[in-house]
Design goal:
Helix content: over 70%
Shape: elongated
Largest sheet: none
Number of helices: 4
Number of strands: 0
Length: about 150
């Protein structure tokens, strides 16, 4: 019972942090700060924290799942929970650690060049990567909802 509650607590922390940062805090930064570059920098810092929190929460949840499977009196933990946690972790790896470095490079190009063709191309590429990153974040958030419902 204690492992079940611990899994729910960790999953709720993870999903709550994802939702509050991605769907409340980041949009509010862009809505309230006049300097979009500053808003982007702050949002990027927040998403870095969320990415590392995601990795830590996934590792803890996998460890708790493993501990649950080792208890002789407990029913075996759901493989669905493992797949949901794995899916969420993969979303973090692809979205933050995969796409974010390219977006950071494009941001440097946008702030460092005055050549219009480079700016237009960098903006287009940044928009595509940002849309992909947002889509991955939404998928991760939906997987998080399924995780909470499955653990509960």
């Amino acid at each position: 019972m204690m492992l079940q509650r611990s899994r729910l607590l960790i999953a709720t922390l993870w999903v709550g942090a994802l939702w509050s940062t991605g769907f409340i805090v980041a949009p509010m930064l862009f809505a309230t700060l006049a300097d979009r570059a500053l808003a982007g920098t702050i949002a990027g810092s927040l998403f870095r924290v969320i990415a590392w929190l995601s990795i830590v929460c996934a590792m803890i949840l996998f460890a708790l799942q493993w501990l649950s499977s080792r208890k002789p009196d407990a029913s075996s933990p759901s493989r669905t929970v493992d797949y949901l946690v794995l899916g969420m972790a993969l979303c973090t790896l692809v979205g933050y650690f995969g796409l974010q470095p390219y977006m950071a490079e494009l941001r440097l190009v946008l702030h460092g060049t005055t050549e219009l063709s480079q700016v237009a191309d960098a903006r287009r590429q940044f928009g595509i990567l940002h849309a992909a990153s947002t889509g991955i974040y939404i998928v991760q958030s939906l997987l998080g909802l399924a995780l909470i419902l499955k653990i509960r």
